[in-house]
Specification:
- About 15% of the residues are buried.
- Helices cover about 55% and strands about 0% of the residues.
- It starts with a helix and ends with a helix.
- The protein folds into 2 domains: about 100 residues; about 45 residues.
- By secondary structure, it is an all-alpha fold.
């Protein structure tokens, strides 16, 4: 009985997924992945690795390898900064002719895992604290609203308080005796 339970348990356990097995062999797809890694701040090493994979890919159709090599040189420069990554991203996009391979085709609906867009947006990092006059105005208005609310709660409270009600109830109890 225990052997059957163990066998059933082993059969129902999910298999291990290997991320390396499904890596693309098309240079344009690998260049697009490098652009996505730049947009998501994956780091210089991962971007350089993906660009090298694109240079070594067997299917190089649709990508300008000279520009891809130039992008690799830019990303491997010492003293890496955000400006160099932006430049690398622009060079990689130019190497694809300005159009990502995953871009939707006109007149065709996006299906399956397709997103229906060819835009790789930068990571969204909203400003923290008071960044501009609009934030300061919003903070001031909220403080005014809190102050007005407190003033109204004091101004419009009922004329009797809990202490006064307690005194009245003790007086009534004292008379009834």
């Amino acid at each position: 009985m225990a052997d059957a339970a163990i066998a059933l348990l082993l059969l129902t356990m999910p298999g291990v997924a290997w991320a390396d097995e499904m890596e693309s062999d098309q240079a344009p797809v690998l260049v697009e992945q490098a652009i996505a890694l730049i947009a998501n701040d994956a780091g210089q090493a991962r971007v350089a690795e993906r660009i090298e994979d694109a240079l070594q890919a067997p299917d190089k159709e649709g990508v300008n390898l000279g520009l891809v090599r130039k992008a690799l040189d830019v990303v491997e420069r010492p003293g890496q900064d955000q400006a160099a990554l932006r430049e690398t991203r622009e060079i990689l996009l130019e190497s694809l002719g300005g159009k990502l391979p995953s871009a939707p085709q006109p007149g065709r609906f996006a299906t399956g895992t397709e997103t229906g867009t060819s835009v790789v947006l930068d990571e969204f990092r909203p400003a923290r604290g008071i960044a501009d006059a609009g934030d300061a105005t919003l903070l001031a208005l909220s403080l005014v609203a809190v102050a007005v609310g407190l003033w109204l709660s004091v101004r419009l409270r009922p004329p009797h308080s809990i202490r006064e009600l307690e005194r009245r109830s003790t007086k009534k109890e004292g008379r009834g005796r």
